[in-house]
Amino acid sequence: MSHSSSGPALTGPRLTPLSGNPARQLVVILHGYGADGADLIDIGRAWQGRLPDAAFVAPDAPEPLPFEALGGRQWFALTERSPSEYKLGARSAQTALDSFLNEELAALSLDERALALVGFSQGAMMTYQCGLRRKTPPAALIAYSGLLPGWDDLADIGTRSPLLIVHGAEDDVVPSYHAGTAAKALADAGADVDLHELDSLGHSIDERGMVLGGRFLEAAFSARKAQKE
Question: What residues are paired with 15 via a beta bridge?
């Protein structure tokens, strides 16, 4: 199956399973606007003790920022920062990310039920956009400090992936009401949503969020393993 029409091939830093065994899970970590994969791969290092058989990869987004001097990458351009821009932008970046996920799973001989998508900020938008529309639902989805693109039109989503939403109550980049909006829209659509708004936290991931995410993935992968057995 050719992915030549999907845009640039994605790549980024990786971690092999801490156990030394073949990967039994794949955790894909999606960075925010203006960052790159190296910015978030340490999340994988923090979770390796809890998920010793997981491979981690943090792909660089497909586009450089328009202001080259700043460095960093973007999943899609942010000029208007409007609901329509988020919806159309996330949809435009979805094909390249889907192709990347397909290729990574195939390379590890894993099926979709062994996949977790984790995103921060603009990466959380991509976690929602892509993760909720995979033909087979991933084992888990985590959205840190993000918003749900097209929250008012979710007719095409799947709702069988457990979803963790973590957001700082003091976030001044993506205000925390977006977390509640996403959680309500997804719950109304039938999704299993776990929402945590963290006091005294801005637009970042702290130790509390890391612990919540690690526990959530461990539980989700254990549940999928039990289903298979």
Answer: 56
- The torsion angle over the Cα atoms of residues 133, 135, 138 and 143, rounded to 10 degrees, is -10
Q: What CATH superfamily is the domain 8-228? A: Alpha/Beta hydrolase fold, catalytic domain (3.40.50.1820)
Whole-angstrom distance, CA of residue 216 vs CA of residue 208: 12
Pairing of strands 140-144, 163-168: parallel
pLDDT of residue 79: 85
Residue type, 191: A
pLDDT more than 90, % of the chain: 79
Beta strands in the chain (DSSP E): 14-15, 25-30, 54-57, 63-64, 73-74, 115-120, 140-144, 163-168, 193-198
For residue 100, what is the enclosing H or E element? Answer: helix 83-107
Work out the pLDDT band at 167, boundaries 50, 70, 90.
very high
Q: Can you give the residue ranges of every domain in the chain? A: 8-228
